[in-house]
Every structure is written in C-alpha cells, then in structure tokens.
Design goal:
Length: 162
C-alpha cells in the first residue's frame, strides 16, 4: 500500500476518533436495503435534531473505536455500517427507532452512550425515555403539585365561607 494511502487512512481514523469523543451518543446501524430516498429522509430527520449519519468503512470504524477505548464492538462492524452521531444521549436513538416503525429494513446493531457500549435493547429503552426538556418539565410538575394542591384547598375553603 502506498504511503499516502496509509497516511490518509490514519487521518480518517484520527478524525473519526475525535468525532467519537465529541459525541454524547453513537448508534451503529445496518442500512442495507434502504433506498436513497429513505436514507435521505432519515438523514433529514437526524439533522433537524442536530445529529449526523455517516456511512463509514468497517475497518476505519473498528480502528477508531479501539483508539477511543470502546471494547466489544468488533462483531458490530460486520456488513454495511453507518453511524449516527448525537450531541445528547437520546436524540439519535429516538429518531432511529421512530424511523424503524415505518422502515423495517434498517437494523440497529449497537451503540455508545456517554462512553459506555450498549446493545440494541438498551438503546431501545433509551429511545423510549423523554428528552432532557421533557424530564425537566416532569420534575417541575411534580415539585409544583403540593403547592398547587394547597392553593386549590385554600381557594375551596374561601369559596365555602363566602
């Protein structure tokens, strides 16, 4: 192999390792069988939530994951592979699992969430969770409930006396 090709591949591995470290979560999928229009639709949905989908050679994926320290992904990088990068823990997995409801050809292989390698079942659980803003809203409603109930009780007592 030519020296220039080796240097190019080493740079690709280094760049991908950098992207792996910057991403909060990664989802590895098999996109075989999807049409160009379906992949474009998936990419557009991911871009709307500030995520990216890239088709990358398995050898590059394998080397970058080893460089970052993700173990247990070697069997994931068999056959066609694409990776979705997300800046939060749940966006990419939510979009991909929503896309799976209408397109059974896409197959989730595995993922990485906050530096931890997870299988497709764990990703499905994460996809079912509300996003950060949804969780904050749920917490605030739980915190407001006692005060709201007290205010309703005081209002009922004042209306009864009047």
């Amino acid at each position: 192999m030519k020296e220039a090709t080796i240097q190019l591949k080493a740079k690709q591995v280094a760049d991908l390792a950098q992207k792996f470290q910057e991403a909060e979560s990664l989802v590895f999928v098999d996109h075989l069988g999807l049409t160009v229009a379906e992949i474009t639709e998936l990419r557009n949905k991911l871009y709307e939530k500030d995520c990216e989908l890239h088709v990358i050679k398995n050898n590059i994926l394998r080397r970058a994951s080893k460089e970052v320290g993700y173990t247990g992904l070697d069997e994931t990088f068999v056959g066609p592979s694409a990776v979705a990068f997300s800046k939060d823990a749940t966006s990419a997995s939510k979009i991909i699992y929503d896309f799976l409801k209408t397109n059974k050809k896409l197959e989730v292989k595995a993922g990485v969430v906050e530096g931890k390698v997870v299988d497709k079942d764990e990703l499905k659980v994460l996809a079912s969770l509300p996003d950060k803003n949804g969780m904050i809203a749920m917490l605030l409603s739980v915190l407001q409930a006692p005060i709201r109930n007290l205010a309703c009780a005081i209002k009922a007592v004042s209306e009864k006396e009047a």
